[in-house]
């Protein structure tokens, strides 16, 4: 009957919710030991210059490698850690990981390319974050410019704190990239008011450029960003067609599976040496 069916569904969803809650508690309980055992690592996805087709930068993306070697993707734990606040510690851990990596490369005599780190909006509310990050850069003896900070556009919404925060970052010498532009609440005024030097066009916009109207939107975003003195990175570029169109639109940099997936350290080093 309908009633039985209904109760059956409720039971089903209650069970699903319970499972999700248990999964979340497990992810939270395992966090500290995962940090201690260095189970979190960064992968590196190269960003290519559209004109020269060479690597001009990279983005660090966290991966959780379990002791059995299986990998957990950020989508499975970042949203949870953003809610419970653990993300602040994880972001700082990855930031340190990237700074130490840059120091290794510098010691090997390699020319450093900027490797950006993602900073969650949760971190913005911790007043000493900028000082802590500055200290990590200084301890590693690397230039501030080699670890740009990516903040999502939603993180910049309507927030007085964000102005102080971004200005402090930029005054310290960090480059600031606006991440996922066009995916959520794009506020055009924040683009002109906050000191971002790079705009990253979200994959969802890039996916529309084969349509005339979608193309128009991307073209105008690029013109706007350039007009405001920003560089443009297109995210999630997967095809030669997309690359060709973005080239015509004078997009500066490309990040996407077309050129490269995010790579583990050793593979990234190899690829950048071939560069
Ligand atoms: P994001 O910062 O926008 O990073 C880009 C995401 O798009 C990455 O997913 C990357 O693997 C994926 N991607 C790049 N090119 C392509 C493509 O051509 N096709 C497709 N389908 N995907 C592409 P990933 O590594 O799963 O990370 C997802 C999100 O998790 C990131 O989005 C970022 O918001 C968050 N995240 C990752 N690492 C960190 C971190 O260390 N801290 C914080 N706070 N967030 C992080
Ligand atoms: Mg990012
Ligand atoms: Mg992004
Ligand atoms: Mg994203």
UniProtKB/TrEMBL annotation:
Stated name of the protein: Stage 0 sporulation protein A homolog
Described purpose of this protein according to its UniProt entry: May play the central regulatory role in sporulation. It may be an element of the effector pathway responsible for the activation of sporulation genes in response to nutritional stress. Spo0A may act in concert with spo0H (a sigma factor) to control the expression of some genes that are critical to the sporulation process.
Top-rank taxon: Bacteria
Residue ranges of every copy of the EAL domain listed in the record: 24-275
């Amino acid at each position: 009957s309908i009633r039985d069916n209904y109760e059956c569904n409720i039971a089903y969803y209650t069970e699903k919710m319970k499972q999700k809650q248990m999964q979340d508690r497990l992810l939270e309980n395992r966090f500290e030991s995962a940090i201690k055992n260095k189970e979190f690592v960064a992968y590196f996805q190269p960003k290519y210059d559209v004109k020269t087709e060479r690597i001009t930068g990279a983005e660090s993306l966290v991966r959780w490698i379990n002791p059995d070697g299986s990998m957990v993707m950020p989508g499975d734990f970042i949203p949870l850690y953003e809610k419970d606040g653990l993300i602040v510690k994880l972001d700082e851990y990855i930031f340190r990981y990237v700074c130490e990596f840059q120091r290794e490369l510098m010691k090997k005599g390699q020319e450093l390319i900027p490797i950006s780190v993602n900073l969650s909006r949760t971190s913005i509310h911790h007043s000493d974050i900028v000082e802590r990050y500055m200290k990590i850069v200084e301890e590693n003896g690397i230039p501030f410019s080699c670890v740009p900070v990516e903040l999502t556009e939603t993180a910049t919404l309507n927030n007085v704190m964000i102005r102080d925060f971004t200005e402090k970052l930029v005054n310290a010498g960090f480059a600031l990239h606006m991440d996922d532009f066009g995916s959520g609440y794009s506020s055009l005024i924040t683009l002109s008011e906050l000191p971002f030097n790079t705009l990253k066009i979200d994959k969802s916009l890039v996916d529309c450029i084969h349509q005339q109207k979608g193309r128009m939107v991307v073209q105008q975003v690029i013109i706007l960003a350039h007009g405001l003195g920003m560089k443009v990175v297109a995210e999630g570029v997967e095809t030669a067609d997309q690359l060709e169109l973005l080239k015509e639109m004078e997009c500066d940099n490309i990040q996407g599976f077309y050129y490269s997936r995010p790579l583990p350290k050793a593979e990234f080093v190899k690829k950048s040496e071939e560069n």
